[in-house]
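Methods — Computational structure assignment.
A single polypeptide chain was analysed. Its primary sequence is given first, followed by the predicted tertiary structure written as structure tokens.
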Amino acid sequence: MIEELHESWTTNEKIKTRKLQTTDAQHLFNIFQTQKDLAEKNRKTVEEYLEHAMLADPSNSSLDHAWYTSAYQLKRLAGRVPKATMPELVQSLWNDDRLCIFNVYILFSDKDYETFRAGLFLWLQLCVLETKMSRLLRMGTELVLSSELGKDNSQIKDSIISALLETRTWTATDHPQWLALEVDGGIQIRPAQYEIALACIKKSGAIMQLNMGLGKTRVIVPMLYTYWRLKKSLVRLNFLSELVSEAFDFAHRRLTASSMFDVQLFQIPFHRDVKVDECRLKVLLDQCEYCVRVGGAVFMTPEARCSLHLKNHELRMLNRRKECDLINEF
């Protein structure tokens, strides 16, 4: 027992303790303010570049396409070509068809296309940095006030250190929708959240545990959904009946009523007392196919899934094979 305690103490001593290099609250506040202003300035510069790129057309068009260039310019002058907003441009990172609406010329050149995508990724990362510096600036304000009042500010300093140590452990270009989630939600995906999401993606049927308040519903579930929706498969989100309403409302605010996502959500309640026939079950399957086609998600409860499963056995006992086959397809 003494050896175990000694080993535990030795391990604890090896853990590096992080401290702020300066204890001057006002100096920290000034640093955060400077970095926020710099991030905001760079973000606006990249934004202006992207907006200008969307209005550009090829100056060296061949004679075969010169008429199309002139026609496109006339349509733009007449207001027949919509002007893209930044959220709409962000959607082009996972849907190239969005660019065709605003400026098809970007897709003609691989170099221009890759340069434009790199600019969008840079803009998103600058947005995340600007939001992070805003959070640190608020903490810096609290630190200055607590220092002036002579209050204990150790908890604020720990929060600042924790925020400064948060780094992105995943490649932004591999997961543009996760980057868009960070920008749209004003969050930063923590390494622990990424590890859990990655484990769920790589290990089919994996069971992961995370303490309350660490972002299961508001961070990890949207991460998994935005990943699986690109695989063109039916995404089912299962929640306890006590939590499904809250989870659905949050997903509606974050994913449906979002400026960067236009996600359609579906709820499928079911009870064994419901009378089913072949026509109604086909409607259910049609809705599921539509959900896959538009990249939506289905919310269900364990009770509804269990009732549907038991209904399948009930129909099999009645020798209603067609209805059973339709339920099995779901």
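Note: Residues 232-330 form one domain.
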